[in-house]
Automatic annotation (TrEMBL), chain A:
InterPro entries with a match to the protein in the record: AAA+_ATPase (IPR003593), ABC_Ni/Peptide_Import (IPR050388), ABC_transporter-like_ATP-bd (IPR003439), ABC_transporter-like_CS (IPR017871), Oligopep_ABC_C (IPR013563), P-loop_NTPase (IPR027417)
Protein name: ABC transporter ATP-binding protein
Pfam families: ABC_tran, oligo_HPY
Domain ABC transporter: 6-255
Source species: Saccharothrix xinjiangensis
Subcellular location: Cell membrane
Top-level taxonomy: Bacteria, Bacillati, Actinomycetota, Actinomycetes, Pseudonocardiales
UniProt GO molecular function: ATP binding
Automatic annotation (TrEMBL), chain B:
Protein name per UniProt: ABC transporter permease
Keyword annotations from UniProtKB, A to Z: Cell membrane, Membrane, Transmembrane, Transmembrane helix, Transport
Coiled-coil stretches: none
Major location category of this protein: membrane
Keyword Membrane: yes
Similarity-based family: Belongs to the binding-protein-dependent transport system permease family.
Organism: Saccharothrix xinjiangensis
């Protein structure tokens, strides 16, 4: 049994006066201790909502969460608010996208680190301050004693994200969810933060769910990758087979749209046509069909099922054949 | 071109300067550079100092009827300035200048008292609405809506009129009540905005207790507009208190030197000695202006959009 088992997770947003909208539509995946699992997809494909649902952070009204999220055998979705509050920060940590707005601007960094130590490890403030300095040191913040007394706006972006990681890891959670942790950072800092995450995960055996739209991040960090489209997993595989041989046209398209250093001069990038529509119809069709270069008539009539074969799960009627070069852009 | 470079350079200097400061220090620094803030602060400080020392620097006893003034009183005449009496007599033969000075104390006391009471009550209501949300929020806000739907002066008059006998306390309470819904709305709005902010979500994701989230993460980040409003409210509270006294709903004690009351009493003599109405009116206006300027510049200094 895996440490985290997400089964058939569905999140339906219900707004008065409009059709219910399935943001996450039957997502299942496993995470083992020490493993890094990536959730990849464009904006609006449901990756952030998945993470918020696992953490129990979706607003209590206006949505319906079904399925199960078993963490070490306990279904997190069935826990009361109070029980969930005790687990957040202690068993489950989360790092958010924007490090500046995720820190409280009016209190010093130190207090924000000790807060979680006092809350979950019942440390007295003084002892927590010592621990906080060690934590900041561990995530590579120089001169941690001084930083503890500083306010978030006095730290650089990379430093803030390091501080947030330190806070998230303060109570040694067994599962860390990182929701686009490098999106707001520039490329050099991005590399540092990823290296830091990799190191921490290796040293502490923390399981990591990495949510990103950046396949470069996935390639550098993840053991397992789930590619999401329209709230559903369309392809799931280990990192190497996924990158070497993407089978789903969407994964294939994502990889083809990354600029490569070794590409011949003059070769154009191949974008995926169109954009994610607001309400993606999986009923009686493949949601990706309107944008898919491989689409067959059947794709617009029958919903493809997620089929598992050769260490890979695939939701496609007409997958890309192994060895196919990047699809050429079709003129509109 | 030169100016553009200079502007850029100044921006860099400012940035360097702002490193190592908390939000409050940053706001103070920006206020110290604004002439409006300085004018407002000077007026307010002078007024506050005056209200403390007024009883000691008043040249005459503000409550005594001086025979040389009383002797000059006629049905159609009030003695004007004379040696020792800078602004002449009031309608009962007392030194008008001394009474004007002492009146500062009354105005400050009423203004600060009413604002503080309104602030505390308003923050309790707004804080509860913002912290709990849901039906608590709905009910409390309907209550403040009702209060806001009545013009504030009319509300103050009605409350003051409820008291069988006017007094300074009834004036303070009446004015305080009218400020409650403003503070409540403001704090509630700011707290609701905080509730959906990233750092509150981040704190929630750490399992931080609700109480800590409200008091450490939501409330301190919501106080800026409330502090600004309190400064502005001081101005309106002083004006409203004066209005109540003017209308005869204040303390009927003829001894009390209060600007609104002095203004009201001078009405009858406006064709004989219009200055008697003019002086307290000007005093009220200047003090209200001082608090308004200070409040407005405080608002600007705390506005995150002005942060560089």
């Amino acid at each position: 049994m895996a440490m985290l088992e997400v089964r058939d997770l569905r999140v339906v947003f219900q707004r008065r006066g409009s059709e219910p909208f399935s943001a996450v539509d039957g997502v299942s995946f496993d995470v083992d201790p020490g493993q890094t699992v990536g959730l990849v997809g464009e904006s609006g494909c449901g990756k952030s909502v998945t993470s918020l649902a696992i953490m129990g952070l979706l607003p209590s009204r206006g949505n319906k969460v079904t399925g199960s999220v078993k963490f070490e055998g306990t279904d997190l979705l069935k826990l009361s608010n109070r029980e969930m509050r005790d687990r957040r920060g202690r068993d489950l940590g989360m790092v958010f996208q924007d490090p500046l707005s995720s820190l409280n601007p009016v209190i010093p960094i130190g207090l924000q680190v000790t807060e979680v130590l006092e809350r979950h490890r019942n440390m007295p403030r003084k002892q927590a301050m010592v621990e906080a300095a060690e934590l900041l040191d561990k995530v590579g913040i120089p001169d941690p004693q001084r930083r503890l007394t500083e306010y978030p706006h006095q730290l650089s972006g990379g430093m803030r994200q390091r501080a947030l990681i330190a806070i998230a890891l303060a109570c040694r959670p067994r599962l860390l969810i990182a929701d686009e942790p490098t999106t707001a950072l520039d490329v050099t800092i991005q590399a540092q933060i990823l290296a830091l995450l990799k190191e921490l995960v290796r040293d502490t055996g923390t399981a990591l769910i990495m949510i990103t739209h950046d396949l470069g991040v996935v390639a550098g960090l993840c053991d397992e990758v789930n590619v999401l489209y329209g709230g559903r997993v369309v392809e799931e595989a280990e990192r190497h087979p996924l990158f070497a041989e993407p089978r789903h046209p969407y994964t294939h398209g994502l990889l083809a749209s990354i600029p490569r250093l070794d590409a011949p001069r003059g070769e154009k990038l191949t974008p995926i046509k169109g954009s994610v529509s607001d309400n993606i119809p999986w009923d009686h069709a493949c949601a990706f069909a309107p944008r898919c270069p491989n689409a067959l008539p059947v794709c617009r009539e029958v919903t493809p099922a997620l089929e598992r074969a050769d260490l890979r799960a695939l939701r496609c009627h007409n997958p890309v054949l192994p060895g196919t070069p990047a699809a050429q852009e079709v003129p509109a | 071109m030169m100016t553009l470079l200079n502007r850029k350079k100044r921006r860099v200097d400012e940035l360097a300067e702002s490193a190592g400061t908390s939000l409050a220090a940053d706001a103070l620094r920006r206020m110290a550079r604004s002439p409006v803030a300085i004018i407002g602060a000077v007026i307010v400080l002078l007024f506050a100092a005056l209200s403390v020392v007024a009883p000691f620097i008043a040249p005459k006893d503000p409550y005594r009827r001086y025979p040389e003034l009383v002797d000059g009183l006629r049905a159609d005449f009030i003695p004007g300035p004379m040696p020792g009496f800078l602004l002449g007599s009031d309608e009962l033969g007392r030194d008008f200048f001394s009474r004007l000075l002492v009146g500062a104390q009354q105005s400050l006391f009423v203004g600060v008292g009413a604002t503080l009471i309104g602030l505390v009550l308003g923050m309790l209501i707004g804080g509860a609405a913002g912290a709990f949300g849901g039906w608590v929020d709905s009910w409390l806000m309907r209550f403040t809506d009702i209060m806001l739907s009545i013009p504030s002066l009319l509300l103050a008059i009605s409350i003051a009129a409820l008291a069988s006998r006017g007094s300074q306390t009834t004036v303070i309470i009446a004015v305080a009540v009218t400020t409650v819904p403003i503070f409540a709305r403001l704090l509630r709005g700011a707290m609701l905005a905080q509730r959906h902010s990233d750092h509150v979500l981040a704190a929630t994701a750490l399992g931080v207790k609700r109480r800590t989230i409200v008091f450490r993460h939501m409330l301190p980040n919501s106080l800026g507009p409330v502090i600004v409003q309190a400064t502005l409210t001081l101005a309106t509270a002083i004006i409203e208190a004066a209005s109540l006294s003017f209308l005869g709903l204040g303390d009927p004690d003829p001894d009390r030197a209060e600007w609104g009351l002095m203004l009201g009493n001078s009405q009858r003599w406006i064709d004989v000695r219009p200055e008697l109405a003019f002086y307290p009116a000007i005093a009220i206006i200047i003090v209200a202006l001082g608090f308004t300027l200070l409040g407005e510049s405080l608002r600007e200094a705390l506005d995150p959009k002005n942060r560089r």
